[in-house]
Amino acid sequence: PEHPRLTFKSIMLFALSDLYLLNGNFDEALRRCRELLDHCHREQDDHLRALVAGIFGKIYLKMERFPVASRWFDKSITFHKQRNNWSEVSKMTRYQAIISALTHADSEAINLYARAIEYAEFEKGAFLDCDTEIRGDLDPMFRCLDRYDVILKMDPKPTLKDYQIDKGISG
Q1: Taking burial as the number of CB atoms within 10 A of a residue's CB, which of 32, 122, 156, 161 is the most buried?
Q2: For residues 57 and 91, is the Cβ–Cβ distance under 8 A?
Q3: Residues 6+ positions from 143 with CB-CB distance below 8 Å
Q4: pLDDT band at 170, cuts 50/70/90?
Q5: What's the N-to-C CA distance of the chain in angstroms?
Q6: Which of 13, 82, 83 is nearest to 52 (CA)?
Q7: SS3 92
């Protein structure tokens, strides 16, 4: 089928996999994920199988088994590209970028993040570092994107200039 048949069993196995992952019980998370994968095979549900591949990737990423995690994310990406499911491709590609950053492959991480943006399903988007603190309305920033393709803040230090880029956005 084109979309997963979310049965009670598959929903519970997804939930248990995530719960065990969040609690750091990786063995149990993997066991539930294997059960879910068996369920996908029985149901012959390729879409659900691709989602499960992403869960396996997250578990192995958390376990810091980066090559194994990367292979699972690749499986998920391959399936979702074939189905034009770009939001999942973007998500899995961002996980690949995290692996690259964690293994100090910085140039690869930057390249992967750029590729993830290619798959965005929105006309406008914001890419913020994880340490960015949002202290106001982002609408003025998005309005700038009506006139410019990209807006950047190049200086890593906060700066206040005596002019405005747009209403509510200091230069």
Answers
A1: 32
A2: no
A3: 166, 167
A4: low
A5: 51
A6: 13
A7: helix
